[in-house]
Known about the structure:
- By secondary structure, this protein is α+β, with helices and mostly antiparallel strands.
- It has helices spanning 109-115, 145-153, 181-188, 197-215, 227-236, 341-350, 378-396, 411-414, 436-444, 446-449, 471-475, 492-509, 534-544, 550-555, 557-573, and strands at residues 2-8, 40-47, 50-55, 62-67, 70-77, 86-89, 120-124, 140-141, 193-194, 218-223, 241-247, 284-285, 296-299, 309-312, 318-319, 327-331, 355-359, 402-409, 422-425, 428-429, 454-457, 465-466, 488-489, 514-515, 529-530.
- The strands form nine sheets. The protein has an eight-stranded mixed β-sheet, sandwiched between helices. Strands 1-18-20 form a three-stranded antiparallel β-sheet.
- Helix 6 (341-350) links the parallel strand 16 (327-331) and strand 17 (355-359).
- Helix 4 crosses helix 5 and helix 13 packs across helix 15.
- The radius of gyration is 26 Å and the shape is globular.
- The two termini are 33 Å apart.
Amino acid sequence: MTLTLFWISTALVVQSNACFGAFAFDRNEDITHNVTETYASRTYFYVGGHYVNATLPGSNTTGQYMVGQIYVEKLLPRSVTRQYPIIFISGNGQTSTNFLNTPDGREGWASYFLRHGYTAYLTDQSSRGRSSFLPGDGGLTAFPTAQEESLFTAPEKQRPLPYPQSALHTQWPGAGLVGDPIFDAFYASQVQALSNGTLQAMYNNVSYNALLDKIGPSFVVTHSQSGPYGFSLADARPALVKGLISLEPQGPPIENWNGPPFQSDYSTTGGARSYGLTPLPVHYDPPVSSAAELNIELVAARNPNSSKCYRQAEPARQLVNIAKVPNLLITSEAGYHAVYDYCTVDWAIQAGVKVDHVPLETVGINGNGHFMFLEQNSLEIAAKVVSPWLEKLAVSNSNSILCVMVVSWDSSLTNHSSHQQQIHICITHIAINPSCEAAQHDLAMLHRRCVPLRFARLRPSDSFGMCGTSTQLEAASYPCTLHGEHHSWLSARHISYWYKIFEGVLSERFPDIFCPGLDVEPRIWSSQVFHFRLAQWCVDFLYVDELLDCEYLSSDIFGHWLVYGCHALLEAERVEDPGGLFRQTNC
């Protein structure tokens, strides 16, 4: 069996004020709180984890148990228009419900990004929420109400103020105190967490890497305690983390801040994040065999309302893998991270990591605390900061393309054998990076990610038709479900025709775009793959080569996708469409 991949453009029409290296914060969008929840289909699975033999407390019997696995909930919008999904990882004592709704019942960030065409993966960290905890596997901890009020929901009402910036806190819905129904709803959602932070990090590091390996290239959103996990993911899987958004990531580097009450010094707990941004080893250049090899120094605070910062003594070792990943770090105006988030940014920049740091007050978003994505203006933050930054990445990533279909067949199909064979067609997103080496991993992911959307059976005759008009199709036992609107019945003739165009013509016309030797798995993949700037190719292919005509494009499923993808890419890349072919309503 041979699998052949056909590729067209991402079909992402990006309208943004962003330019490469910068992004705008002035998006005009309806971000009222009366938006109906976004429809999504829901599935879930568990990933990671391993078996251990353990004796539970109070038991004299040793048994086998699983530890370290994480719960993953996949939310798929009606129309997926974004190339990469978003993985959400909540902070300490939280679950993925943080991103479903706000405590006062408004739509959460998951709904917002689903509405904007992203697939969302909501996760519960290991040993928390729906990711089970093994009794005796370390101690558990939880936040008391006084700590929640002081740090999260009502810091401005504490006396003395826990930190100077807390006086600016205005965005929490409700009073933020015990007895207020919104606070009570929020506190009811709090769960236990492992008190052993290193063990928690080890479990999550393995399982979130496994999640990326399973679903492929993704954006990652972390909050607070999960911030270092995002940095570890970027270090371990830089080709798969397409953008890392850190919402007040746990920090600052090396040690914990010694507050509240406010002071500029640090605790002496023995290295909360001994590798700078993470508690676990990451790749530095020159390499280190232990955290003790990092040459660090404590520098003065930048102003009276900030903490001192740990940084590396020069010359600083470089975080070579994390530096490959685009980073956005968001700090609220009135959260306690306003004291020291700048230290995290400084450590990253000194280590060669480009970070877009956005203190919200600098873009006109005021009054937020640590749980900014639950507060009254949560959608404003999503619309004015996060979404434009993601779109900036889409604009700059012009070499990413869309896997439109995977078709499998063998020689028995072309000679019209009476034996019924299956054609597998699917539509999915996969990034092919500019280097053939990077493409190797992306292709290895293909057979795991490209789930067939439609199965059709070839019949002895060579026929073709649209859904509802083909007698053979109506008689087939497989429904028309290809992307909801474009459906077709495919024959060996059509498969061979498109195979010839994409494999033959392109390999001859563009010999420099092939990555040789990408045999990922012979029984699944035995062809070459190409990547190139598709926008100009759309024009060359249809106007110079004149291989296709509008009438054929209008009647063929592959043609539909070629036109749709090229039209979108031409707009995104602003490539001239001299004949207006892609803008014709009937083509």
